[in-house]
Amino acid sequence: MHVAATVPAVEVDDVSFAYRGGPSALEGVTLGVEQGAFVGIAGPNGGGKTTLLRLVLGLERPTSGRVRLFGAAPGTRGVRRVGYVPQRAQLASATPVTVREVVEAGRLGIRGVLGPLRAADRVAVGLALERVGLRDREAALLRTLSGGMQQRAFIARALAAEPALLALDEPTTGVDAASQESLAALLAELRAELGVTILYVSHEFGAVEHVVSRLVLVRGRIVFDGDPADLPALWHDPSHVH
Ligand SMILES: Nc1ncnc2c1ncn2[C@@H]1O[C@H](COP(=O)(O)OP(=O)(O)O)[C@@H](O)[C@H]1O
Ligand SMILES: [Mg+2]
Questions:
Q1: What single string gives the DSSP state of each residue in 52-97?
Q2: What is the pLDDT of residues 116-140, one digit of tens each?
Q3: Which of the ligands is closest to the CA of residue 51?
Q4: Is 49 in the pocket of ligand 1 (CB under 6 A)?
């Protein structure tokens, strides 16, 4: 195996964070994620799941502590590519954008200014559409697709960047159960075939419990980190969590 594979995908070391002027959002968070892992991040609304993702991706800076992505500070040159599907990304705008245009935008981070697509861009876009099963819908307007299909378009956009890490923030909100299950299967396949590391945020256990090998429960700090099967029974009770 390549030496780089021994570098963890994510290292969060005793990180605390507060939004400006606000109370602490996260305190004393330490989390290591090996490459190729499929980690579910769950917890109540306001628990800090989105904040944790944003810290990992370098979109927020820790108030104290340190974050490393593939051994380097997030956002620095040379850090391996990350794909991010932000919370509520699946809401289609009124803009008449096609599925293919959404996915092409995933090449922006690699190419800088989006001029005419080069062959490599077109190949990456085509493969991403193929992977999520939207090749035959590429000319359709995004807003004409079902919620589940729109969500797949946003995942394809993230995949078009050929990421080593894929971070999804509540991708199944407002999506039916069948789409949730096929998304889980798609992610498991991506992980197996591409070796991509996946951080999957959900506020529900049910959505992540059966597909991830590790569950991290965030409630201002990490209150559980391990095999979902070892989760104390108490925490399965939704009334306790929400
Ligand atoms: N942009 C922001 N400015 C100020 N406070 C925020 C901001 N985003 C989130 N918060 C606060 O930080 C805490 C964690 O929020 P968040 O990370 O969004 O939780 P989750 O994703 O688990 O619902 C909450 O108390 C929330 O109100
Ligand atoms: Mg959130």
A1: HHHHHTTSS--SEEEEEETTB-TTSTTPPPEEEE-TTTTSPPSS--
A2: 778 889 999 999 999 999 999 999 9
A3: 1
A4: yes
Domain that holds residue 129: 89-163
32 lines ligand 1 (CB under 6 A): no
Domain end call among 115, 148, 163: 163
Ligand 1, atom 16, residue with closest C-alpha: 48
Q: What are phi and psi of 80, to 5 degrees?
A: -65, 155
State whether 73 and 93 are in the same domain.
no
Q: How far apart are the first and last CA of the chain?
A: 43
The total number of structural domains in the chain stands at 2
Biggest CA–CA distance in the chain, Å, is 55
Cβ–Cβ < 8 Å for 16, 29: yes
Distance 1 CA to ligand 1 centre (A): 39
Q: What share of the chain is helix, strand, coil (3-state, %, to 5)?
A: 40, 25, 40
97 vs 140: CA distance, rounded Å: 8
CB 199 within 8 Å of CB 33: yes
Q: Residue 58 is part of a domain; what is its CATH number?
A: 3.40.50.300
Q: How far, in Å, from the CA of 58 to the mean position of ligand 2? A: 16
Render pLDDT for 82-117 as a digit per residue (tens, 0 to 9).
Answer: 999 988 765 556 678 999 999 998 887 666 665 677
Do 71 and 181 sit in the same domain of this protein? yes
**0.85 cut: is pTM over it?**
yes
Residues 76 and 130 in one domain: no
Let me know how long the chain is.
242
Three-state DSSP at 181 gives helix
